[in-house]
Amino acid sequence: MKTINSFKFQVSGFKYILLACLVCCNIVAALTSCSDDEFSGDPAKDWNGTTTFFASTDAQGFNTYYTPSVGRVGDPMPFYDQKSGDFKVLYLQEFTNNMTYRFHPIWAVTTKDGANYQSLGELLPFASNDYQQDAALGTGCACENDGTYYIYYTGHNGNCKNREVVMRATSTDFKSWTKDELWTLNGPDFGYSGNDFRDPQIFVADDGLCHMVISTYPNGGGDPVFAEFKSADMKSWEHEGRIRMIWDRMLECPDIFKMGDYWYIVFSESYRASWSRKVKYMVASTYEELKSCLNDGPKWAPDGHEGILDSRALYAAKTASNGTDRYIWGWCPFRSGADIHEKNTNVGAGDGNEPNWSGALVCHKIVQHADGTLTLAAVPALAAKYNLQQEVKVMASNGSSASGSSASGDLPAGTATLSGDDAYMLFSRLGTHNHLSFTVTTSNNWDRFGISFVRGTNSKKYYTLVVNPEGEDTRKVNFEQEGEEGKGFIEAADGYNFQRPDNNVYNIDIYTDNSVLTMYINDVCAYTQRIYGIQKNCWSINSYGGSITVSDVKVCQY
Q1: How far apart are the first and last CA of the chain?
Q2: β-pair partners for 231
Q3: CA angle 65–69–70, rounded 5-degree value
Q4: What is the C-alpha separation between 214 and 372, in angstroms, rounded?
Q5: CA 147/CA 152 separation, integer angstroms
Q6: What would the CATH number be for the domain defined by 388-557?
Q7: What is the C-alpha to C-alpha distance for residues 107 and 113, in angstroms, rounded to an integer?
Q8: For residue 328, what are the β-bridge partners?
Q9: Where do the DSSP E strands lie in 148-222?
Q10: Rg value, the chain, Cα
Q11: Is the pLDDT of residue 46 over 60?
Q12: pLDDT of 465-500, one tens digit each?
């Protein structure tokens, strides 16, 4: 039996033009970055108490999952600046209309906590003509030595003898940068490809020297490798040798670091397949041992899922540490399409279902476990940022029974049980920036449940993160289009495997900023996804044939 409970809206700190946006803000409190067109679909309609689909749109710029007002974020290059005590996150600025040879200048943002960002603007422009080596800029890294900041980056130009070379620029204040026109690293000089020689990353190894790894191929062909160089002063570099990659898979954006007693390499596997193109890691006790992890085997981290850190909606991720915590930044791809539904299912583009390149900047905190394995968790500052608790009401339900009382008044009852086929609770509308937190307890080791977005009582299509049993002890988050006209499982989105909790208790936190979403489960699962239309629509928790208990449902905004 379906039930509908009324709910009230709470709106504060929000300025709007009465005639353009008449009473259409549902439960949103203190929204700070909404665009006018979010409310242009039906400005005269009172949305209070409704559960029908709303065609919401993204604001022009995102703050939590940073997206510039113009363009998108590509390949982040994070760096912790000890002088200023903040993270500088450089990135390749992507514009909708790039020139043929000149594109991807390096821009940057600064953040102290991974949840709030301020733009630093452009740091390194691309070259002034089509025939200079760095007509286009590619991924690299930033570092500091003896008071001088360095950016080592890829110079990319198909008009030049070597399509890709490693270049550098210097600065004393991280504001004004000078390109070193007299210095390059050229792959063919050391037996490597001149076409693919990119993504330099610098770190300090066990020998106390600066080491640099570069993604490349042997000159003349063969499986991809890392070219390794070392330096005592970050100026002059000596070729150290090559490090094998995994079979024929190009590993982009490498990041090598030591954390506690373990050495790690984080990389983005560019293999074109629906199950690949993910951020992964390997772990070892020493740097020399780490290099051997990539040899025939390979020696995957003992986490049961080949060192995968997130879904296919996070790519080109690299890390930085402030000495206490280590964070990882990657980009969540934008999607193309004529409407919300087309964009939400168009997760791939080109051969091998490759997602679009560039998007929004996503940050996670790295969690290191006792055995050296890594998982990702929410940045602590997110919970502090999303601090305006909203009223949550059950707007419709099926197969649910409630009991107890709620101290906060968020739910009509403290807990609810969902049982049988097509069991769900549909909750009141979300705002533009949301933090959803709740606990799901399954009745056995096989129960299946999901969290749906862009859902209304009239929705023939909506989008669900399904926590699906892949075995008795393994769970996988799948992305599905549900509803009577839904496609079901979206294969090219793939998912994330994690260990079933022993007690079958799933503590879930979901953060959204416009269309970008991150979900965290028990600090052992991080799942990033792009879902257009989240804001201004209802959401639900679902059970599929089994029985689950839902408790402690909260929604906070900022």
Answers
A1: 35
A2: 210
A3: 120
A4: 25
A5: 16
A6: 2.60.120.560
A7: 19
A8: 319, 364
A9: 148-156, 164-171, 178-179, 192-204, 210-218
A10: 24
A11: no
A12: 999 999 999 999 999 999 999 999 998 888 899 999
